[in-house]
Amino acid sequence: MPASSKRHDSISVLALRAFGVVLVGFLALLLGLPLLSLVFRIPPTALLARLGDPLILQALRLSLVTSVFATALVVSTGLPAAYLLATREFRGKRVLEALIDLPMVLPPTVAGVALLTAFGRSGLAGKALAAVGVSLPFTTLAVVIAQAFVSAPFFVGAARAGFIEVDRKYLDAAATLRAAPVYTFARVLVPLAMPSLLAGAAMSWARALGEFGATITFAGNMPGITQTMPLAVYLALQSDLEAAVTLAVLLLIVSLAVLLVVRFTPSRLAAVTLDAGRTTR
Amino acid sequence: MLDARLGRRLGSFALDVPLQAHAGHTTVLVGESGAGKTSVLKLLAGLDRLDGGWVTVGGERYADAAAGLHLPAWERDVGYVGQDYALFPHLSAAENVAFGLRASGVARRRVQPMVDEALGLVGLAELGRRLPSQLSGGQQQRVALARALVLNPQLLLLDEPLSSLDLQTRRAVRVELRELLKRLPCITVYVTHSPAEALLFGAQIVVLDGGRVAQAGSREELLMHPRSPFVAELVGTNLFIGRSAAGDIAGRPAIRTPEGLVVIEDSSGAGTVYLTVNPREITLSRTAPQSSAQNVFEGEVLEIIPEPPAGERVRVVLNTRPMLVAEVTPEGLAGLSLEEGTRIYAAFKATGVHRYF
């Protein structure tokens, strides 16, 4: 009886294992097949040839400029916000954190509509802006704002985690060395949290680069002004499949590169704390 | 001069420590972990807020709970070397030392000579360009010290500066550090859990126990006249506390203690009496000693501790009342074939008892 139950066990374990393998294989197919077929759709030589296409170049340039500006906006405003979230306790902090994370899960078109109701001609801030002759929607600036809106949580979250990770003893040491909090922030906290800040900025930039829904809703789809790469991909799909695939492969390569860099940049902070641990204990 | 009374509630733990210390001297705070030593330093440095009391350094009020005054750490003239040094890992040794000078706005051209001097003072002139991770534990400790000293603080706080070093390094650094501290003009407050370090570094010693001062005084005072079982254990002696003029035993003067009578040489005087017995004065035997002139206690061996480093003598802890510590030679130990749990008699002569009031 024990022998047969053991055999019974091993059969069910084997079956379970096989089932697991099938599931994993299915997931790999689901995620991998579209990417592979995208890459192999056009031979690399044709791909390189299409890169000179003015339509593609225009979208590429616009995407680079807007995503870099959006990231700069997110980093400069997100840095103090992340510091406050990491160091202060106040009422409603949890709610604020949830609000900051919201754009991560919000459908991008909803973000675009929200931006329109704020900065559109009849929007809350839009009316005030119109009074001084400024109209945001359907401008390159609108693209930057849409990208910043959706990509901010990636940076703020990473920066906040990075600041929390910095050991309190370094901040105490700085305080006893005549360093006021602002000096400590610039010379100790930011350098020690740098790996997280860079990773956050990279993720944020990649998200801005891939932005589609909020941009097309809030900024429209005008070549050279608001037509970024993801928009160009969508548009080209209806007329010029090869151009669409070229742009798509380009975006895929950039996204993959960002992820790999973030993954394989050795965390200097982790290395440092490891070192300290070895010498002190 | 440092004049402070440090009150702080941390959950169920209440700290209340009066503290005075003078420039040019090292005052040691000693106690077991959890006695409140680090809390005292954090309150002095301004890294934590007082619930009660005050901190005055060189006539300047740094904190006063009653007046709601709390000068932040960076506005106090205090140097702090924490237990694990906390050298900034992204800065070289020299940049670590320069950090405080830059933060306090010292002119750029004056920084380098001051850094060089401070590194020279701790014997690390050559290693300024190294990162903390490229330095040994002892070297890191000296950089941390130089980083605090370069600011010329009025008050220098050292939190277990030797505890994170390995044994060998600790010996060497201990001697150097003592010589260095002797030359400093500042008020030094040194925290340690080690009685040996306390006696080595402290001209003045404050013994902390459970957030309160168990005893404070000069090194000699503590060694000669421990006033509580805790301090006696710290300085490694046996203490009886009793009342004088209790009568005689077999014609010899004696003191009545909660643990029984202790025969001494001279029982004149009145009031509370403290009796210490050096562990070396205690002899151990397997059978009851015959001489009636001796103090005899019976009990079991609780612990046998080889005295570091070479084990010249062995400390034997007995579960007698009071708990006694005897020091015997390894030969003596072997002759008695002692082990933990052995029933034993501990005896000492009346002449071996040191008495004070």
Compact overview of the structure:
The complex is a heterodimer of chains A (281) and B (357). With 281 residues, chain A is an all-alpha fold. Helix content of chain A is 83%, strand content 0%.
The number of helical segments of chain A is 13
Oligomer: heterodimer
Computed Rg of chain B = 25 Å
Measured between the Cα atoms of the first and last residue of chain B, the distance is 30 Å
Give a verbal description of the structure.
The complex is a heterodimer of chains A (281) and B (357). Chain A is mainly alpha-helical and 281 residues long. Chain A contains 13 helices and no strands. Helices cover 83% and strands 0% of the residues of chain A. In chain A, helix 3 (54-87) runs parallel beside helix 7, helix 3 (54-87) packs antiparallel against helix 9 (181-209) and helix 8 (168-176) runs antiparallel to helix 9 (181-209). Chain B is built from nine helices and 22 strands. Chain A binds chain B through residues 167, 169-170, 172-180, 183, 187-188, 191-192, 268, 272-273, 275-276, 279-281, and chain B through 45-47, 72-74, 76, 78-80, 82, 84-90, 99-100, 102-104, 132-133, 135-137, 140, 147-148, 151, 164.
Distinctive features:
heterodimer, A: 281 residues, mainly alpha, 13 helices, globular, disordered C terminus, B: 357 residues, alpha+beta, six-stranded mixed sheet, five-stranded antiparallel sheet, 9 helices, 25% helix
SSE arrangement:
The complex is a heterodimer of chains A (281) and B (357).
Chain A: H1 2-41, H2 44-50, H3 54-87, H4 93-105, H5 108-119, H6 124-131, H7 140-165, H8 168-176, H9 181-209, H10 213-218, H11 229-239, H12 241-264, H13 268-280
Chain B: E1 2-10, E2 13-21, E3 26-30, H1 37-45, E4 52-57, E5 60-64, E6 69-70, E7 78-81, H2 93-103, H3 108-121, H4 137-149, E8 155-159, H5 167-183, E9 187-192, H6 195-201, E10 204-209, E11 212-218, H7 219-224, H8 229-235, E12 238-243, E13 248-249, E14 252-257, E15 260-263, E16 272-277, E17 283-285, E18 294-306, E19 314-318, E20 324-328, H9 330-336, E21 343-349, E22 353-356
Parallel strand pairs in B: 3-9, 3-10, 7-8, 8-9
Antiparallel strand pairs in B: 1-2, 1-4, 4-5, 5-6, 10-11, 12-16, 13-14, 14-15, 16-22, 17-21, 18-19, 18-21, 19-20
Helix pairs in contact in B: 2-3, 2-4, 3-4
